[in-house]
Design a protein that fits this description.
The complex is a heterotrimer. Chain A has helices spanning about 1-30, 45-55, 60-70, 90-125, 130-140, 145-160, 175-200, 205-210, 215-245, 245-250, 260-270, 270-300. By secondary structure, chain A is mainly α. In chain A, helix 1 (about 1-30) packs antiparallel against helix 12. By secondary structure, chain B is of the alpha+beta class. Chain B is built from 16 helices and 23 strands. In chain B, the strands form 6 sheets. In chain B, strands 8-9-10-1-11-19-12 form a 7-stranded mixed β-sheet, with helices on both faces. In chain C, helix 5 packs antiparallel against helix 6 (about 140-155). The longest helix of chain C has about 35 residues, at about 105-140. Classes of the chains: A mainly alpha, B alpha+beta, C mainly alpha. Chains A and C meet through helix 1, helix 5, helix 6, helix 7 and helix 9 of A and helix 6, helix 7, helix 10, helix 11 and helix 12 of C.
Chain lengths: ~300, ~550, ~325
């Protein structure tokens, strides 16, 4: 019962956070100079007409109340620029599906490459393979995404013609996945390696060994299991960042994902789309935090909710 | 990201040649059965093969935000070009890039030039099978006015347009307008289907099924943010001459991605590319002259900085710009500007307007200009740039920033002014038009090739520089209200002279349009004043 | 004998049953002996080869960024006529750009700006975060709850989106401020864009820091000497300044070290979106994103600044790691 009560409080808090974010974003948005109808040849009269058409000439609080009302009904308005008249909600969900497809694949790559490689490096500490992995992972976490993207494009597509650049061509998702997965993979490698080394040094392993356990059991049953705990806790934020962090990969490789919509929306002052994207991402992050908290509570009752 | 916004030109000169063709159009473009009419003489075998088997390829012209295929709202080069494939007006661009009759079978003009009567072809249909009617055109024009898009005033010379019957349109003009065909060949003047527009409202033409097409192509798919696919319509009257069966328009935003896709062979045409790569792309670039200017504009209005209110300072700044170097940096053979108006504006005697104008300065004598600039700055009290106040030079994008940096480099090296910074601002056009700047990029791409369209931009109350000069306004007024070409030119030249004296802007270049096209393997691209048409593209 | 970690056999080395080294206890006492916090930390740090290497790289980078431009015969905004678009050569080891500017000196100045972005942002984060966290933890009760709710909300904001939006919002007023108020004039050279990055970064990233500080404060609050200080009549301000902050300084420094690369990354990302520093000033982010435009014909223009960014980020990360271990040997990750 106490658990349910706490959960309820946590959900309410999440809704409140979302409301605060909506409010802040809405007013910030209206402070950005310029409007969606600026173009070289649009006369002031035409711009005024368009502003009136979309209700942008009304007082800000009227617009705000109207927006909130719509939001409660799941209506985030229509885009002013992109596909005029198409509902933001459908743009956001559709393009997020694409981002998610890419993001999850990148995440799988990160997990299934990062953790084993990290283990290997940790177990063979100080060997050539460890050195190699450490150098590679260090580079991976310190090169900006767009540099990786440009390099891949230059080498794999232009120079050798191995992979297409655009996402819509067969094999076109390979490069965006590499770019997306690079940072989390390398980060996981380092995290796993550090975690393994930490555990290997701990007393209980010595105890296990002295009890006559085989080295295999010691490592795979005890060391790995325990070293996975910090890694698992990192997976929550990692998922959020991969799902929301596709701006660069999506822009460079023409992926019709949400990140690219956001970049275009910012460049065009497409208020409703910027709002929609921000709110959606915020809701996603809040939701995932909530799920993580609850899961931890179930997995490890020592951790207190809140 | 580079977006070439709305730089549209209706080439008048070409329109004139189109008239000659009016009379004999009927037999010329006849029916779809006779393939022999394709007049590219060289290799007949190849031509027939091309007609028999249509090719498909991918191109790019920009991203989703520029892909507006509602002809009446579209204002981007990509959107307008796509519209030229999907819809068709009374006139169109033909294979050679000339304006010729399209949906209209004939056009008759009254003696006073004020009444035009168009008769539609009998074999034209929308992609849903319905015939194209005169009312679709008059509705489209009304929709254009109601829509309040960038080009809603394009047809302002038309006083009245009425559908006499199913196939006849009668247009009454407010004033004689010889360039009407080029205007009517412009996508904004295309027909629109009332039922579709009313059913979808703002969402009209935002998905393949939300519009209906009367052009050579219909849109078969639109994966948003990814690509648009167009397929040639078999019931289009000129289907036999269309060689491109399917065109995929990839929606890209990064210029480096466009170039990479082009280089890897994914696309055969790209409207933009990173400017910095121009020098390495000479084999792939196509050039076309653009009627425009590229300037640095000074804010001479009340809100502008005091230092720029001194004409000596403005003149010094203008003279100190090394225009040749800027053209070299851009690397696409731009013309150096020594007047506000571009070249290529001819009168009936074939004279070029800028040849009749006194140049503002001798563009080839840069050294001498620098000396003069230094002297002027000294007179203004800023010898060697000492005490020159801090100014901000605003631009709208990365490529213009590079040029602006070159310009302030000249000011620093020649005049010793090192207090000017360059900034890319968001909402650039709004900021400039509200005169909230010191120095700004200014460039005008003419909407139609008539000097008035260029000089209008410096009329009091219109100019973003805040320039206000009664003599200039009087001369402009005298020119535009006169029917006589000689009077017009005389007054236009006067306008130029006043600008040269006052220097509210420093013209830098008249830029060249350029695009990437795989010339080695393909042929037949129609490029017309910033618009592109792929229907006649063939594989070599 | 080599141990195979994957072997199922029980293997006992001679090493395992050897008597312990008699010095092993000596070592332990040495570490805990009363040599002072800083000395001990420094000693531990010196023992960490990677961290030391990273530290020397950082020093080298700082010299490169601060002294480098003074030694260069060129200025970062000097356009050398006739030397446009040169390949790397003796006079210009990194080549020149489209406008004929020496890329080596631009990279130096860019590194200077990027380091400044990193350090200043991190300091802003440190100041806001630690004050906020200390107040919240020290006063506690209702105020603490409210303050931590605010932190929760900011935590769930997709920060990169808001950074872009805030940047767009404050850019304009900042420019106006610099144009009109004489006092801010000198800032015009760096441009409103860069200042906006500091503000944006400071306003979004302090939350992590404040949580750490609050945690430390809560822990320390329970300790006897704090109770003693309170009993002796020390005010809350004094408590913060003299007792609490010095005690969590180790962890703070390490966290600040980690903020630096993250701020540099953010700046590079904003440059990619085209909202970075004002021209002709350069940052490593703006240099790389500029180089992206000519990556096909002149890839070397991308390589140098990208390499520098990576080097800075890497060395700060590694140094930060080492510093954390050195300053707080208990807190091993």
């Amino acid at each position: 019962m106490e658990f349910v009560q706490k959960l309820l409080r946590r959900v309410l808090l999440a809704v409140f956070s979302l409301f605060v974010i909506v409010t802040i974003t809405f007013f910030l948005m209206n402070l950005i100079p310029g409007d969606p109808f600026m173009s070289e040849k649009a006369t002031p009269e035409i711009r005024a007409e368009l502003r009136a058409k979309y209700g942008l000439d009304q007082p800000i609080y009227v617009q705000y109340v109207r927006y909130l009302k719509g939001l409660v009904h799941g209506d985030m308005g229509n885009s002013y620029i992109l596909q005029k008249g198409r509902a933001i909600a459908s743009i956001v969900t559709e393009s997020f599906a694409v981002s998610m497809k890419l993001g999850i694949r990148a995440l799988l790559v990160a997990v299934f490459l990062g953790i084993p490689i990290g283990c290997i490096a940790g177990l063979w500490k100080g060997k050539v393979i460890d050195g190699f992995v450490r150098v590679f992972s260090a580079i991976g976490i310190s090169v900006p995404g767009y540099v990786i993207a440009a390099t891949l494009m230059l080498i794999l597509s232009v120079q050798f013609g191995l992979l297409p650049i655009s996402y819509n061509k067969p094999g076109g998702s390979v490069m965006p996945i590499i770019v997306l997965a690079m940072y989390p993979t390398c980060y996981l490698i380092r995290l796993t390696r550090a975690s393994i080394l930490e555990v290997l040094n701990q007393d209980y392993l010595r105890t296990e060994r002295s009890k006559g356990m085989s080295e295999f059991i010691v490592i795979f049953v005890h060391a790995l299991k325990n070293s996975l705990i910090p890694i698992v806790t990192y997976l929550g934020p990692l998922t959020a960042s991969v799902l929301t962090g596709g701006f660069v990969a999506e822009s460079v490789f023409n992926v019709p994902g949400l990140g690219r919509y956001f970049v275009t929306a910012v460049q065009n002052r497409d208020y409703t789309l910027i709002m929609g994207t921000t709110i959606f991402y915020a809701a996603l992050i809040i939701f995932m935090n909530l799920v993580c908290d609850v899961l931890y509570q179930i997995v490890d009752p020592r951790i207190k909710i809140n | 990201m580079k977006k070439k916004l709305i730089s549209l030109i209706l080439c008048l000169a070409l329109a004139v040649t189109a008239f000659a063709a009016c009379g004999k159009k009927a037999d010329d473009t006849s029916s779809s059965g006779t393939e022999g009419t394709t007049e590219t003489t060289t290799d007949t075998a190849e031509t027939t093969e091309a007609t028999a088997e249509k090719i498909s390829f991918a191109v790019t012209g920009g991203g989703e935000d520029a892909m507006d295929v509602n002809p009446q709202s579209s204002g981007t080069l990509l959107g307008l070009s796509a519209c030229r494939h999907l819809y068709e007006g009374l006139y169109k661009l033909d294979k050679d890039g000339n304006i010729s009759l399209a949906q209209a079978a004939s056009a008759e003009t009254s003696d006073d030039g004020l009444t035009w009567t168009f008769t539609l072809r009998d074999d034209i249909t929308w992609s849903d099978g319905q015939a194209v009617t005169a009312e679709d055109f008059t509705y489209g024009w009304q929709y254009l006015v109601d829509f309040s898009g960038d080009y809603s005033s394009l047809l302002e010379m038309i006083k009245e347009a009425k559908a006499v019957d199913e196939k006849t349109i009668e247009v009454t003009l407010a004033y004689p307008c010889a360039y009407l065909p080029s205007v009517l060949a412009f996508p904004s003047a295309y027909p629109a289907r009332k039922d579709y527009v009313e059913q979808y409202g703002d969402a009209y033409a935002t998905d393949p099924e939300k519009s209906v097409y009367n052009g050579a192509y219909e849109m078969t798919s639109w994966t948003h943010q990814e690509s648009v696919v167009m397929t040639a319509r078999e019931d289009y009257y000129d289907y036999a001459n269309i060689t491109a069966g399917e065109i995929t328009w990839d929606l890209m935003t990064e210029t480096s991605t466009m170039l990479a896709s082009y280089k890897s062979g994914d696309i055969i045409y790209s409207d933009s590319y990173p400017d910095a790569e121009a020098a390495s792309l000479t084999e792939d670039l196509g050039y076309a002259s653009g009627y425009n200017n590229y300037c640095a504009m000074f804010n001479v209005s009340e809100s502008g900085p005091d230092v720029l209110k001194d004409v000596k300072v403005r003149k010094a700044l203008s003279l100190a710009i090394d225009r040749q170097r800027i053209a070299d940096i851009r690397g696409i053979d731009d013309e150096l500007a020594y007047t506000y108006s571009p070249s290529g504006l001819y009168n009936s005697a074939g004279e070029d307007f800028i040849d009749t104008v006194t140049p503002w300065y001798d563009v080839d004598a840069y050294e001498a200009n620098c000396e003069e600039a230094k002297a002027l700055l000294k007179e203004a009290g800023y010898e060697g740039g000492k005490g020159f106040p801090a100014l901000n030079y605003i631009v709208g994008n990365e490529d213009r920033k590079t040029i602006a940096e070159a310009v302030i480099g000249d000011w620093k090296d020649v005049l010793g002014i090192d207090t000017i910074t360059v900034e890319i601002v968001d909402g650039f056009f709004a900021q400039r038009s509200s005169k909230d700047y010191d120095i700004a990029y200014f460039g005008w791409f003419m909407d139609y090739v008539d000097i008035s369209n260029m000089l209008y931009t410096m009329v009091s109350g219109v100019s973003d520089s805040g320039f206000s000069n009664a003599d200039y306004d009087a001369a402009y007024e005298a020119a535009t209200s006169s029917p006589d070409e000689a009077t017009q030119w005389e007054n236009y030249a006067k306008c130029e002279a006043i600008l040269a004296e006052e220097v509210p802007v420093a013209p830098i270049l008249h830029s060249t349009n350029s695009y990437l096209f795989n010339k080695a393997e393909y042929d037949g691209l129609v490029y017309y004043c910033g618009n592109y048409y792929f229907g006649y593209v063939t594989k070599k | 004998m080599k141990k195979n970690p994957l072997s199922l056999q029980i293997k006992i080395d001679a090493d395992d049953i050897k008597p312990l080294d008699k010095d092993i206890f000596l070592k332990d006492t040495e570490e805990t002996s009363d040599v002072g916090f800083w000395k001990a930390s420094w000693k531990r740090l010196r023992g960490n080869k990677i961290a030391m290497a990273a530290m020397f790289v950082i020093i080298a980078l700082i010299i490169f960024a601060i002294i480098g431009p003074m030694l260069s015969p060129y200025k970062y905004d000097q356009q050398l006529r006739g030397s446009e678009g040169l390949l790397p050569c003796f006079a210009h080891p990194f080549g020149t750009d489209r406008l004929g500017r020496d890329l080596l000196v631009r990279c130096m100045v860019g590194a200077r700006i990027s380091l400044a972005v990193g350090v200043i942002s991190a300091v802003i984060v440190l100041i806001i975060g630690s004050i906020y966290g200390a107040i919240s933890g020290l006063i506690g009760g209702k105020l603490d709850t409210i303050m931590m709710r605010i932190v929760d909300v900011i935590y769930s904001v997709p920060e990169i989106l808001l950074i872009v939006v805030i940047k767009l919002v404050i850019d304009d007023p900042l420019t106006k401020l610099m144009d009109t108020v004489e006092f801010f004039r000198p800032l015009q050279k760096i441009g409103a864009g860069l200042i906006a990055i500091f503000i944006v970064y400071g306003s979004m990233y302090w939350v992590g820091m404040s949580r750490i500080v609050r945690g430390q404060v809560l822990q320390l609050k329970e300790m006897e000497y704090v109770t003693a200080a309170t009993a002796l009549g020390a005010g809350k301000g004094r408590l913060i300044r003299h007792h609490l902050l010095p005690n969590c300084i180790g962890q703070l420094i390490a966290t600040v070290m980690m903020q630096i690369p993250s701020a540099i990354f953010t700046e590079a990302f904003l440059s990619f979106l085209g909202i970075g520093v004002n021209a002709p000033m350069a940052s490593l982010g703006s240099l790389t994103s500029e180089a992206m435009d000519s990556v096909f014909s002149k890839p070397y223009r991308l390589i140098f600044p990208a390499l520098l960014i990576s080097l800075i980020i890497l060395s700060f990360n590694l140094f930060g790691d080492g510093l954390r271990d050195a300053l707080d040997p208990k807190m091993k990750k």
